[in-house]
């Protein structure tokens, strides 16, 4: 176990010892919906998480997030980006009888393309630095390394065959075309990333695409407006919190879960405390809103 994991488990034990986990379920979670956000967890990790989660709450599809509560906490499972490793999770979904939502970047799935932040040159240039640039500046920076918007090499996204195999068990939805930071895009770029992604996913999979997730959790009223105009029914943020039938459907809150979280750390993250403290450190406010670029 790494030093980081040891510290996390010590912190998690403190949360349990002082009863913050029970208090959060009774006072905050109640009969509302916790939308959990993963990216690329290993099957054995997700299996352990879901086994524990189902002792605490009912697991529901994301499209039921606004349904009337039944007095018991509920949770919806979501994944961002549609990376190829998500295909290995299918047996876990089937085993636990959960229907997760995977938000796809439509130009990085179903083809041998690379999610831009997984490129070695992006890591060399500094992923967080690239995120803070305007979208045109980011693309120009990557082009200096010989990388364009669609870098075809190996498939870092789900393949067409994997998408088809998973479709009966997974709700595939939209996460933009190329995963730019929308608030760093100009008007046309932003609108196209949101609206065309919907059309591409519907064409690719023959489904109705109704839900959207803001890349990196960055959004303003402009992005919300484009999401509404494109015909989506909901949009998920990275803002911390729980949801019910009174929540703004275009600003759904979430709880970000570490892909490699040990079981104690997962239980601690369900309280929202670790994410809240991280947001306070980065955003320097107590709102629970995801740090914005």
TrEMBL record:
SUPFAM superfamilies named among the record's database cross-references: Glycoside hydrolase/deacetylase
Pfam short name (any one): Polysacc_deac_1
Which biological process, per GO, is one annotated for this protein?
A: carbohydrate metabolic process
Q: Any stretches that span the bilayer, and where are they?
A: none
* Keywords annotated in UniProt: Signal
Q: Where in the cell is it found?
A: Secreted
Q: Ranges for the NodB homology domain? A: 71-234
Q: What GO annotations for molecular function exist for this entry?
A: hydrolase activity, acting on carbon-nitrogen (but not peptide) bonds
Per the record's keyword annotation, is Signal included, yes or no?
A: yes
- Coiled-coil residues: none
Specify the superkingdom. Answer: Bacteria
Query: What is this protein called in UniProt?
Result: Polysaccharide deacetylase
């Amino acid at each position: 176990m790494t030093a980081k994991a040891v510290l996390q488990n010590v912190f998690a034990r403190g949360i349990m010892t002082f009863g913050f986990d029970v208090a959060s379920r009774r006072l905050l979670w109640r009969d509302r919906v916790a939308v959990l956000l993963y990216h690329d967890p290993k099957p054995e990790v997700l299996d352990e998480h879901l086994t524990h989660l189902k002792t605490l709450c009912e697991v529901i599809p994301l499209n039921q997030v606004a349904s009337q509560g039944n007095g018991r906490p509920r949770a919806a499972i979501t994944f961002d980006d549609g990376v190829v490793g998500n295909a290995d999770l299918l047996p876990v979904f089937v085993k636990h009888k959960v229907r997760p939502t995977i938000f796809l970047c439509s130009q990085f799935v179903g083809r041998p393309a690379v999610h831009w932040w997984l490129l070695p040159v992006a890591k060399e240039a500094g992923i967080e630095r690239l995120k803070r640039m305007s979208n045109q500046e980011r693309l120009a920076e990557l082009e200096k390394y010989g990388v364009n918007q669609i870098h075809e090499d190996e498939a870092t996204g789900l393949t067409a065959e994997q998408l088809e195999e998973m479709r009966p068990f997974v709700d595939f939805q939209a996460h933009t075309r190329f995963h730019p930071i929308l608030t760093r895009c100009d008007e046309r770029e932003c609108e196209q990333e949101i609206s065309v992604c919907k059309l591409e996913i519907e064409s690719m999979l023959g489904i109705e695409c109704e839900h959207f997730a803001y890349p990196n959790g960055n959004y303003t009223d402009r992005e919300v407006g484009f999401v509404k105009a494109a015909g989506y029914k909901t949009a998920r943020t990275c803002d911390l919190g729980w949801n019910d039938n009174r929540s703004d459907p275009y600003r759904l809150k979430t709880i970000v879960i570490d892909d490699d979280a040990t079981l104690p750390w997962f239980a601690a993250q369900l309280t929202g405390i670790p994410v809240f403290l991280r947001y306070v450190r980065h955003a320097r406010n107590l709102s629970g809103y995801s740090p914005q670029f």
